[in-house]
Specification:
This protein has a three-stranded mixed beta sheet, with helices on one face. It contains four helices and three strands. The longest helix has 29 residues. β2, α4 and β3 form a beta-alpha-beta unit.
Length: about 120
Amino acid sequence: MDKYVDQDELLKGATSWQWRRKETTSSIADSGRKYLGFNLRRLEQSAKIVDAWQELLPEEMAAHCEIKTVKNGIIEVEVDSGAYMHEMRLMSNELVEHLREICGEGKIKKLKLVAKSG
């Protein structure tokens, strides 16, 4: 038996210098909480913008305008072409000001108006 113990000790000593990985496993629940925590702030901010948008925009305009994306402070709005696009261009600065008041000064940079296709 002593022969085997010595060989085991030799093997341990020979491999002890090797880098050992730390256990990096985590449960799916932990990973999900981390992901949601990170994205929850963005989702809450987007929801706040959409709620404010619906509150600020006149009903007739709301039927012809739709928020498509909110990214880096730029709200991309798809608008029916023609008179509605023209009206949105006239209203956009005022809408941005009101959205900044509601959502915070640094949160909203501008509206990007895009004509609906089709």
